[in-house]
Amino acid sequence: MAARIRALVVSAAAVATLSGASGESIQAAPAPPSPAVPPTALLPPETVPDASARDGFDLASTLSTSDGKRGRVDVGGCEDVVHGRLVGTGATGQGFQSAVPGGQVSELVARTTNPPDLAAWAAQAGRCSKVTVDDAAGTAVSTVTVHPAPAVPGAKTLSYQQLLTLPGQPPELPGLRLRTVAIAADDVLVVLRDAGTTGLDLDALAVAAWRHAAGPLGR
Question: 83, 192 in Cβ contact below 8 A?
């Protein structure tokens, strides 16, 4: 059972980090491409405590290979929440995933002509707080809880937790957890996510990532 949940969480973590735009945010006309994001905008490896096996990715090339691998959701309108889709259309970006004690952590720094409305996303998460996911790894229950987000001057922020469990799973088995902190202003979006029991201070790490990205992005 634990292995099956882990497979679902690994799948969800990858999709959530790399997913595309929400249906509500699609623009009527194609927007010009966003400026490129240099890899130096990402946190240096030594910034993430005890991180190892760091794998970098380019957002555009990863999205082009992941579109056909998304799971299905049996409650209409909750796909974006379940898959953590915070990246708008026409986005460019760089990211990484690293193994850390207790799980994994990822960062995405994106520039987009279609920035997310984090307040609207949080409201939708309240409406989609508990839904059933059906994907290639099997069936799981997604429970999403929105938390107070760190205050960042001049930016909108979002913080939430997603718990994935199997249907009918006993309460003593906690399932596996994804935490996400997002910070957005103008055309820049920074997303930090961890999976498992990492013990990381994700709020502090996200604020550090936002400040670090400012220089390489010319902000």
Answer: no
Residue 52 is inside which H or E element, if any?
A: strand 52-58
Tens-place pLDDT, residues 19-70 = 333 333 333 445 566 788 999 999 999 999 999 989 999 998 777 655 545 5
CA pair distance 213, 59, nearest whole angstrom: 16
What is the distance between the alpha carbons of residues 33 and 59, in angstroms, rounded to a whole number?
Answer: 13
Neighbour count for residue 211 (Cβ, 10 Å) = 14
Which of 10, 113, 19, 111 lies closest to 64, judged by CA?
A: 19
* Residue 166 CB coordination number (10 Å): 17
- Rounded-to-integer distance, Cα 125 and Cα 123, Å: 5
How many other CB atoms sit within 10 Å of the CB of residue 131?
Answer: 20
Amino acid at 11: S
pLDDT digits (tens, 9 = 90+) for 193-206: 999 999 999 999 99
- Tens digit of each residue's pLDDT (9 = 90 or more) over 62-90: 776 555 455 566 567 898 898 888 987 78
The tokens for 97 are: 């995933």
